[in-house]
Amino acid sequence: MTTIIQKNELSQTTVLVIGGSSGIGLGIANALAEKKARVIVLSRTPPVDSSLEWRHIDLSLPDESRRQLQSVVNEFGAELDAVFYSAIYYGAKRAPFLQIKEEEWRYQLNVNLHGLWLSLSLMLPALMQRAPSLFVHISSEVVYNAGPGRSGYAATKAAGSNLIRSLAEEDPASHVRLVQLLPAKMVDTAGIRLRRPSGFDFSNYMKPEHFQSIAVQLVQTRGEGQHGNSLVVDETGQVWHADDIIPSSQSQHRG
Question: If you average pLDDT over residues 64-69, what whole number do you get?
């Protein structure tokens, strides 16, 4: 288990949450806004039942998303303290590799990996001006376990994780603290619910709210002491390093 000491108030803090219309991203955005941070959500659709600031972005369209991200950097870059990348495209359902169409692979690649790369390339220069600052990537246990029927998701998430790890090693002075968060268990989100049958029991699933405490602490400390780390979060609030305890596979959960 890792301990993160809180410091720094958030009333003068600006945070972008990319992929914050629902799920983990929205949970994080709401928690930071409650702590008086200025939070701007970037997503394809507006945040669900929320008064958060919102800017449209469609990461499945690389050229358009580049323009949209650059516009956000132009607007907020001078005051940007932290970025959370929670955008994700899983796919309609699990399926064997040979049944997946190239269109779905490209969608996964654009959202899960290229969108992350693009966000980093455009936002790191702004974040460096506010050092020490923070960039958090929402990772997945598939980075460590892969799993049948989710080859594109596993491949893009593993590549994204290694992109973050590589960049962390390029900046040992940690001007921008690069941290990854991932759940210990499946998380009850809108996307997951679309892939589950009617009447499915979600009582054993984590909730997006379980990420709120660690997200707030990371922003308060600007990720101090966590540069390059992948942190596993569970439903009790415990947090540990993925390199110390490899996350369990969730491949038994189909869909």
Answer: 97
Q: Does this model's pTM top 0.85?
A: yes
Interhelix angle 62-76/115-128, rounded to 10 degrees, is: 20
Residue 62 lies in a domain: yes
Beta-carbon contacts of residue 142 (< 8 Å; ≥ 6 apart): 150, 153, 154, 157, 158
**Whether the Cβ atoms of residue 25 and residue 115 lie closer than 8 Å to each other:** no
Q: From edge to edge, which strands make up the β-sheet containing 38-43?
A: 53-56, 38-43, 14-18, 82-85, 133-138, 176-183, 230-233, 239-241
Residue 40 to residue 33: CA distance in whole angstroms? 9
- Side-chain half-sphere of 136: how many Cα atoms within 13 Å? 31
Q: 75: how many CB neighbours lie within 10 A of its CB? A: 12
Q: Is residue 1 part of a domain?
A: no
Give the domain extent around 114.
Answer: 14-241
Tell me whether residue 206 is in a domain.
Answer: yes
Q: pLDDT for 7-30, tens place per residue?
A: 557 999 999 999 999 999 999 999
- The distance between the two most distant Cα atoms of the chain, rounded to a whole number of Å, is 51
Which of 53, 47, 176, 41 has the alpha carbon at shortest distance from 122? 176
Q: Which two tokens stand for residue 24?
A: 């983990």
Can you give the CATH number for the domain in which 74 is found?
Answer: 3.40.50.720
> Is residue 208 assigned to a domain?
yes
Count of the separate structural domains present in the chain = 1
